[in-house]
Amino acid sequence: MDIDSKKDKSVFQFSNPSTKEAVFVINPRYKGQLLKVESQQFMIKTKVEEPKYLDESETDTRTSNIFVTVTNNETETLDDETPFLLRVTMGAKFKWSKSDIPLEKEGSFLSINGASLLMSYIRPFVTTLTEQAEIQTQYIPFINFVNKNH
What we know:
With about 150 residues, this protein is of the alpha+beta class. It has one helix at about 105-130, and strands spanning about 15, 20-25, 45-50, 50-55, 60-70, 85-95. Helices cover about 20% and strands about 30% of the residues. Strand 4 and strand 5 form a beta hairpin.
């Protein structure tokens, strides 16, 4: 199958995703061996801003900002059992036509597709960050955003 990046462009587009926050701290009080730290459980939160028209004169193009945060520690405390603190937030402005994505479907489209697209940028960021530290490299699995409240 041949796909043309201009002709087959999706109706759902976004600005260049940007890192809004990146925190990574090795815990000096951790009692275990850092090189033997197993894969951490990551919590994922999404924030979808209320969709709006591109500008006041626009009646078809809609936009919304989406933010996804991944962390291994929601309390941000480093006790003896927590090997490190990692928190990454990325965001992007999404744009679409209401003639292609009806108003009643845009919420689920944003929270599922938008969050999935941003996770594809966060995942390698976390891997690269952790592989350059003195801990076992952390990999975030593919996430099912369907029917989830993150």
